[in-house]
Structures are given as C-alpha cells and as structure tokens.
Design goal:
single chain, about 325 residues, mainly alpha, two-stranded antiparallel sheet, 4 strands, globular
C-alpha cells in the first residue's frame, strides 16, 4: 500500500484535517529535536553545524520540488481561474512570484522586528542610540565602563554596560552582565526561530490543501525532519545560557506547536476554500523558507570554521528531500 493511501485511510480525505495532522507532526518533530539534549548532553558545534546544514538542504529542495514548481504548474493549467487586473489575467509564474516576494518581505520585516523584542524583555541590555558612541570610553579614576554584547538574529548587537567602581566589583558585574547577555541571545534566537516556523507550518497546510496528498506528505516529512536539528540547536543555546534541559525542551515543543499547527490548519483551509490562492500561498511559503536559509542558517553554519561538514550536511539534506519527493510521488 502506498504511503499516501495509508495516510488517507488513517486521517481521511478532508484536506483541512490533513493539514491539522501535518502541523501536529512537524511540531512533534521539533519537540523531538529539542528533547535530544536530555540524552546527548554536550553536542559539539561541529555536529550542530552539520545538522543545520542538513536542515537547510532539505528546506531548499522542498521549496522548489514541493512549492515553487507545483505552484507554477497549477497556475499554468487552462482550468486555473486567475485574478484579472485591467483585462490582464495573472497566471503562470506570476502568482507564484508575487507570493514569493511577499513571503520574503514578511520574513525580512520580521527579522528587523526581532531587534525590538530586546527592550520589551529587559531594557537593561539595550543602550540608547545616543549612548552608543560612549560605550568604549572610560570614566576616569578607578572606575571604567565595560561593554558586552550579544548578537541578535539579524546580525545586530544588543549591548549592555556597567560602570564599575573597583576591580573587585568588576568580576561580579561582568559575570552578571554576561549571563544576562546570554539569556537575551537565547530569547531573541527563540523569537527568530518562532518567526521561521511560520512559513514551515503554512507550507505543510498549503501542501495538503492543494489536494496533492503525496506532495503534502513529502512537505510534512521534509519540514519535520529539518525541525529536529533546528529544535536541537535552540535547546543547546538555551542550556548554554543556564536554562534547565527538561524545562526548555518542553517549552520548545510547545512553542513550535503553537505556531506551526494553527498555520498549517489555516493554509489548508485557505487553499481548499479558495483554489486560486494556491500558487500565491505556495510562493509565499517558499519565499519565507528560502529567506531563512540564506539569511540565517547558512551564515550560521559557516561562522565557526566547520564550513566543509556543514556543506556536506546541506548536500545530504537536499538529496534526501529529492528522494522523498520521487518516492512518494511514485
């Protein structure tokens, strides 16, 4: 029995229900990845980079084989009822490109929004822009100003500074500042990852909402698999900041589910009810996923000296997704 037939027997033929199940599955994979830290106590940066490279390869192939190309094909069919503007019908690649650009813009704006989360969480870690040029100055006398910073998801830094009166106080204040900075880094990273989960959940819902069960399953498995190293990476960052293993692992799974499950449900419902939206939704999900790859995952995996193993992980992930797409479509 084909995997698609088995899935239909277990879940049913309602695309909205299929999208809901798909969202639950990918959230469960995220929880699995976050929970690995309970058993793999100290994963190295080398293997984390390889795992994230693998995730990027899976997402790249999925964006093309399960979203962009099927979306263009769907919008090119004679039966497709495209939107008409000024007598010009938007069909073929154009709806997909429009959705693609919208998804890219949303993620880009979201990345910029992430930097403003810092003051909402702890205004101690963000200096006023007017003070930025004074961060490296000394106060004179026995005191000095020490700065520390943590890089946010978009490459910017949230700085903290403390005026230190004595050398003895310096060590204590610096330890406290470093701890706060690490915690802020994790919080910002968590917000960024949550933002990135949005197009993933939407993609799974759109895949099932299109009516192509095999394509939906391929997306579900691909995104679920890449959620494992993603969940692991976030949990490792949290542990390095001093958070508890079991507490954060559970939190990571709940966080992913709260984002991915409703968006998968929304994506399936939207395209099932309004078929002309399908190519736009496919392009939108692909644009968001590709933005994440280029802006976040690949730079992160090439920043610590493990570029080669990260690249091999990327290639293996791409090959796996291509294989899944062919096998499930057979």
């Amino acid at each position: 029995m084909a995997i698609a037939d088995l899935f239909v027997r277990l879940v049913g033929e309602n695309p909205v229900l299929q999208g809901l199940v798909g969202g639950i599955v990918i959230a469960a994979f995220n929880l699995l990845g976050a929970s690995i830290v309970l058993f793999w106590r100290n994963p190295t940066e080398k293997w984390l980079d390889a795992a994230l490279g693998f995730a990027a390869g899976v997402m790249l192939s999925a964006s093309f084989t399960s979203l962009l190309l099927p979306g263009i094909e769907f919008a090119s069919e004679p039966s497709y009822d495209g939107l008409a503007i000024g007598g010009f019908e938007i069909i073929g690649i154009i709806p997909v490109l429009i959705g693609f650009l919208l998804g890219t813009v949303l993620l880009d704006r979201g990345e910029r929004w992430v930097r403003y989360v810092g003051p909402l969480i702890s205004n101690r870690l963000v200096v006023d822009p007017d003070e930025a040029d004074r961060d490296t100055q000394t106060d004179g006398g026995t005191g000095s100003e020490v700065t520390s910073g943590t890089e946010s998801a978009d490459g910017t830094y949230a700085h903290s500074h403390a005026h230190l009166a004595t050398p003895e106080a310096s060590a204590t204040a610096t330890d406290s500042t470093d701890s706060d900075a690490r915690l802020m880094s994790v919080l910002l990273f968590t917000v960024a990852i949550t933002l990135h989960n949005m197009p993933e959940g939407l993609a799974v819902g759109v895949g099932f909402g299109s009516g192509d069960i095999a394509n939906g399953i391929a997306l579900m498995l691909a995104i679920g698999i890449q959620n494992v190293p993603e969940g692991l990476a976030v949990s490792v960052a949290a542990i390095n900041a001093g958070l508890g293993r079991s507490t954060y692992a559970a939190f990571a799974g709940i966080r992913a589910g709260l984002v991915e499950i409703p968006l998968a449900l929304l994506g399936a419902w939207a395209v099932a009810v309004t078929a002309p939206l399908l190519p736009y939704a496919m392009g939108f999900a692909a644009g968001g996923m590709l933005y994440v790859i280029g802006d976040e995952i690949l730079p992160e995996t090439h920043s610590r000296g493990y570029e080669r193993i990260a690249t091999w992980g990327f290639m293996i992930g791409a090959a796996l997704m291509l294989t899944l797409d062919v096998v499930l479509a057979a």
